[in-house]
Amino acid sequence: MTSRHPVKLVCVDLGGVVVRIRHSLAETLHAAGVPGYLLEAISTDEMQAFRASTSLYQRGVHDWDAWLDAAHDALARRLDRDTLLRAHDAILMGEYPGVARSLGAIRNAGAATACLSNTNARHWDALIELPALGEIEHRHASHLLGLEKPSAEIYRAFEHATGRAGADILFLDDLEANCIAARACGWNCVRIDHQRDTAAQIIAAARAHGVPC
Questions:
Q1: pLDDT tens for each residue of 5-19
Q2: Pick from 92, 131, 159, 192: CA 20 to 30 A from residue 41's CA?
Q3: Axis-axis angle for helices 99-108, 198-208 (nearest 10)
Q4: Three-class SS of residue 69?
Q5: Of 119, 173, 137, which Cα lies nearest the Cα of 9?
Q6: What H or E segment, with its residue span, contains residue 52?
């Protein structure tokens, strides 16, 4: 079934759609070799402080060094900076198979491609080297826009930057909160299941919204 209004632009989130990621602090710290007893010692207040520091980092308010200091303090200095660095770099796990081909097929079918991701400068430098990013024409991220999903402001900033809005856009994200916010802005949206074949889901969603890919 296709959309009555074929979309002009397909916008993807990166983590969980284009790139495999570790989704929680516990997962990344475990990957960095942090023992379980240290993970269990992190309190709710410390976790909230860590998330607040990460939000500032993702919005470009904090640079890498400022975030590292803030995260170190937020976690009561239990973890040294080298461990935090390893955990941070362990978040990205590589591109999902076939995603670059899917995005290329969408472009070849005449629709524009874009990304809108909550990320940071250090991860961005790694992400833009991936083959899939070569198939994305409009590259937008939280640290570049100074805004963060799911705030309505970031979706409006994206519209301003791309010249597309509302029903012209199909947005693909793995988080329901981000999808709800996009729909509230009038966008078409499909939630992607990051545990399944994301490349196939991207193609299926684009076809369902009028892109003959």
A1: 799 999 999 999 999
A2: 92
A3: 20
A4: helix
A5: 137
A6: helix 44-58
pLDDT digits (tens, 9 = 90+) for 91-137: 999 999 999 999 999 999 999 999 999 999 999 999 999 999 999 99
Of the candidates 201, 173, 197, 199, the residue with the CA atom closest to the CA atom of residue 185: 173
178 with 150: CB under 8 angstroms? yes
Contact 12, 83 (CB under 8 A): no
What confidence category does residue 38 fall into, taking pLDDT thresholds of 50, 70 and 90? confident
The percent of the chain in helix, strand and coil, each rounded to the nearest 5, is: 50, 15, 35
How far is the C-alpha of 26 from the C-alpha of 176, rounded, in Å? 21
- CA separation for the pair 205, 213 (Å, rounded): 10
Q: What is the Cα 105 distance to its own chain's centre?
A: 21
The pLDDT, as a whole number, for residue 39 is 83
Looking at the chain, the whole-number percentage of residues with pLDDT higher than 90 is 91
Radius of gyration of the chain from its Cα atoms, rounded to whole angstroms: 18
Strands 19-21 and 92-95, by their bridges, are: antiparallel
CB 198 within 8 A of CB 103: no
201 and 36 Cβ atoms separated by less than 8 Å: no
pLDDT tens digits, 52-62: 999 999 999 99
Decide: 175 and 80 in contact? Cβ < 8 Å: no
